[in-house]
Amino acid sequence: DMLEVMTAGLYRSTPHRARNTSGQPRLSFPFFFDPAWDARPTCVPLTPQLQLQALKARHADGAEGYRRWDGALLQRFRGTYGEHLVGKVAKVFPELAGQQLAVSSADSLGLA
Q1: Which is it for the CA torsion 31, 10, 91, 27, positive or negative?
Q2: pLDDT tens-digit profile of 59-98?
Q3: How many domains does the chain have?
């Protein structure tokens, strides 16, 4: 998700799916490389050619922008990676997100 934010939508996140339709057993080993919890993503410098590609992609998406499979508009995200992740997790595991927010608040106040 953060790569999408940092490249102005040029590189988009792949929907996460763990469906096996082959009829054969398989193993899946996902790899996630996450920024620091308090990192604020900023756009990386893009070459003029890549800037044009990103602009064309945004223009093709319409005025509102590209809306992902979960309804998120990552182009409008402003905040820390931790805020993004808690918001994303809260949609599926609201109790886990609440626990993490409590831990984060305690950490920021020096209570943990």
Answers
A1: negative
A2: 776 656 667 667 777 777 888 988 888 887 777 777 776 6
A3: 2
